[in-house]
Predict the 3D structure of the following.
Amino acid sequence: MSLLYLPAYSQEDSTALLGLAGDNLDLYAVLTLFQKSKTIEAFEKSLNDEKEKINNLDLNLDKKVDFIKVVTKKKDDSYSFILQVDVNKKETQDVAVILLDRDKDKKISLQIVGDEALYGKDYVIEPKGNSPVTPNPAYTGENPVTVTVPATTTVVVQSAPIVQYVYSPAYVPYTPPYYYGFYPPWFGFATVMAVGIYRHNHYHYHGGYYGGHYGGGNTVIVNRNNYNNFNNYQNNKMRSTTVANNRANGSYGDRAADRSGNRGSTANRPSTGTSNRPSAGTSNRPSAGTSNRPSAGTANRPSTGVSNRPSTGVSNNRATTRPSTSNYSSGRTRSGGGGGGMRSGGGGGRRR
């Protein structure tokens, strides 16, 4: 029985949780989607499409999936496609960067690097075969490799629709028009799914890539062709104080979720079953039969000014013990109206 379950365990182990926000955005799936997309605009749309179920990121802890915009930067034949989330009106957080480079021999290198705040240190993945196959001078077998042979997967990267598009004369770098509170009309603000379910749905993407978390196997480093490009990106990356604080407080990942994958610290608002509001049967309001008000026949009835009858302002009835709205903490930090509102002045976007 244990042998039968071993392959499934191995597959799940390859998607071990990081305990960080990045558990809700599988970069293996993101890089696969990137290669399948025809344009950067199409990639951005598919990345945020609820039907694709690739984006499950919630950096501001409002229980709604964040919109990820894709910012393009170019230097010579090197491109950086930066995935960003506007956490609030003032803060933007880089999620990951896709590095695409074409060297003087027209060879393409492609990698994606997760931001340290979301994925930990040195989280780098690349398509298998991105590195060339080289001869081993110590090999003594019957079939030595006599020439350097590029792996076949490199050809797949070069022929990917988006790679051909980016290096075509017709390409114009894409600038996303979206910002916090203004998103495309098709973006639906989906509810974040349980992280365990999300990760299970995406483990099959991992087979075609090298790399991953620095603590795991098959660790890769930033390709030398992408190194200068990556350094330029590092010098200008966007960081959010809110995200840093949430990470420091353990609000992301397995420390903030139970075994079913439900986030455990998204709201302080009492639930229906644990409300502090006294029920009708346990109200502290004095009942008619136990009132401290002296009866009409009592000669020592206090005067009106010193009556023991609870005043309206200090009543112990259940209305005064109900938690004030200032203690409700839904965790949602987005401002503005409902998700269906349109941006004033046109543009086709919607405000959260």
